[in-house]
Structures are given as C-alpha cells and as structure tokens.
Amino acid sequence: MKQEKRSRQAERVSAVAVAVNLLLFVMKLVTGRSMGAMSVIADAYNNLSDAATAAVGLLGFVLAVRPADREHPYGHARYEYLAALLVSAGQLTVSIGLISSSFSRILSPRPVEWMGRAWIVLGIAIVVKLLLAAFNLAADRRLQSGTLRAAALDSLSDAGATAAVLVGGALSRRYSLPLDGYMGLAIGCLIFAGALSLCRETITSLLGGIPSAADIGMLEKDILEGREVLGVHDLQIHDYGPGHRYASAHVELPAALSSLESHAILDEIERRVAAETEISLVLHCDPVLTEDEKLPVIADALRRTAEKMDTRITLHDIRVVPVGGAEQVRFDCVTPFGLKLTQAEAEERFTAGLKEQVGGNYVCLPLVEHSFTGEG
Prior knowledge:
This protein has helices spanning 3-35, 38-64, 79-107, 116-143, 146-175, 180-207, 213-224, 259-277, 294-309, 343-357; strands at 231-239, 245-254, 279-288, 314-323, 326-335, 362-370. By secondary structure, it is an alpha/beta fold. It has 3 domains: 3-207, Cation efflux protein transmembrane domain (Alpha-lytic protease prodomain-like), CATH 1.20.1510.10; 213-288, Alpha-Beta Plaits (2-Layer Sandwich), CATH 3.30.70; 294-370, GMP Synthetase, Chain A, domain 3 (2-Layer Sandwich), CATH 3.30.300. The strands form 2 sheets. A 3-stranded mixed sheet has the order 1-2-3, covered by helices on one side. A 3-stranded mixed sheet has the order 4-5-6.
C-alpha cells in the first residue's frame, strides 16, 4: 500500500479515536465530580490521555507523509515515533498527578454517593471502548501501524479499568468500604505503566533497535532464493519510520562468476525485494572459491577454535590470501554482546588453533564485530 493512502486511512482512524475519547472524558468527568468519586475522575482523565495520544498520533501521521527534501533525504516518517514520545511524556505527567490525588483520597477518605446514572455512563463507556479497540485492531491489520495497535490495546485496558471502577463502586456501596482512592491509585498506576512502556519502545525505535525476527527471516529467505547465492551475512536494517526502511547485506557468490554476472544477480535481488517489501536493499558481493579444497578444512578448524572461546561466535567470509612466504586467512568473526575479545587476542587464538589442527604457515586476520540483528 502506498504511504499516502496508508497515512490518510490512519488519520481517519485517529480522528475517530480523538472524538470518542473526548466524549467519554466529558461524560465521566461530569459524573465523577457530581458524585465526588476520585476513581471515576481518574478514569475520565485516562480517556483524556487517550484523546491526547490519538491527537498527537494524528499529527504524526500528517507530518510523516511529507516527501523527502534536501534536509531530510530519508523522509519524515519518524514523526510517528516523535509523536508517540510526546504522548508518553504527557501520559506520565497525568498519571503522576492521579497517583498523588488518589493517595490524598486514601489518607482522607470521603463518602461517595453512587448514583444510578453513574452505572449507565460507565457501562456505556465499557461498550464504546471495546468497539473502539475492535475498530483499531481492524485498521492495524490493514495498515500495519504500531501506533494503531497500541491504541487498540490501550482501549482494551481502559475497558478493564472502567469495569474495575464499577466493581469497586459496587463493593463500596454494599459493604461501605473506602475503595475510591485505591481504585484511582490503580488506574493511575495503569496509565503510568503503559506510558513508560510506550516511552521505552519509542526511544528504542529512535535510537535504532534490533529488527524483528520476521523481517530478518524474510530478507534472508528472499536473498538466498537468488541465482547462484551460496550464503548471506552482515545483514543490517535501518528504520526511518513506517514505509521508510533500508537494508544492506553481504552475499556470497561463486568467485568464478564475472563481475558483470555477480552485479546482475545482486541487482535482480534488490529489485525483487523492493517490489515485494518496500525495503531499499543494497547488497555487497563476497566471492567464494568453491573449487578450493583447503578452504573447507580451514573453515572447520576455525569454527572449532571459535566454539572453544564461545559457542555463540559465528564466522563467515573465510578466504585465504597468499602474502610473501605465508598465507593470510581473512574472515569476519561475529561475537555476542558482552564477550570481551580484542582484535589482537582473536588473531593470536585463531592462528594458534589453525596451526595446531591444520599446520602450515597460516596467519589469521579476523575482523571482530558484533551482530546488528540481535544474535548472540
């Protein structure tokens, strides 16, 4: 789906959410104040927070669809992430205020007169929130938007929170228990937890988190289906917002192929991936000497040496380069995060392991690096 069409549909969904949540906020606030019920007032501000979330999300969709320009050659899709960050900061502020007010109500409880219209208002709110959740989930299935998916889950949690207020009200009325402050505190904590989770998720997206396993598997499968492809490694995926993703990878091809043949194969893969996934892919060719009988023996010896250091280490792009009277064995050594292995230590340990297992005058020159797909 084209990003402009996707954005317009997401804008309409967000606009509906803004209107619905504002209506619920007014209904609950009027009801809660007339009763003096802190839990109902807290639930009202929960809806106001949701309205703000949808409004900022709407603004994010509007700005994100702006085309690339000289200052922003990768587009403006990350406005969706910035919008979510602003929303989470606002929700944290609201939740802290509600928690403070609820603590005051717990320390100084006041009687709450539960009126008949309160049950009606809260019952309507639960039904509306469940319908809104279904509406957002249906939109998310079409548009694949984390913002809409989060809104759907938030609506479900809101329906649960309102149901809890109803239960608390019923218990308070029947047994004369001062539960109002405690219910307000629970809702404030619920808003705080959700806002904190959204904040962490958004910051991770802005900083550059690991791609999903589904995206990694999909790209690797698409690349490995290319003609003559022997393997793929060093996959990196850069996320500049929904519909604006870029990836790169090293592809192993037989060294016997000409540079023109290799280029044609990689170009074919890049075009196919772009058409199927809207990911802009750049591939680098790693030639593999498939007829070299010594290479499999050397590769096995290097991998056994790596396993002794850490079973999570992976090796690739192994090649032998004659230099003077010795032979240099060059390869990439992907280490897990947390493993302290310096370049000098890797060279020494791999050279010693290869000499012990294979012999010969080999010098190992590994390139120590870490994975960009969360492996290890």
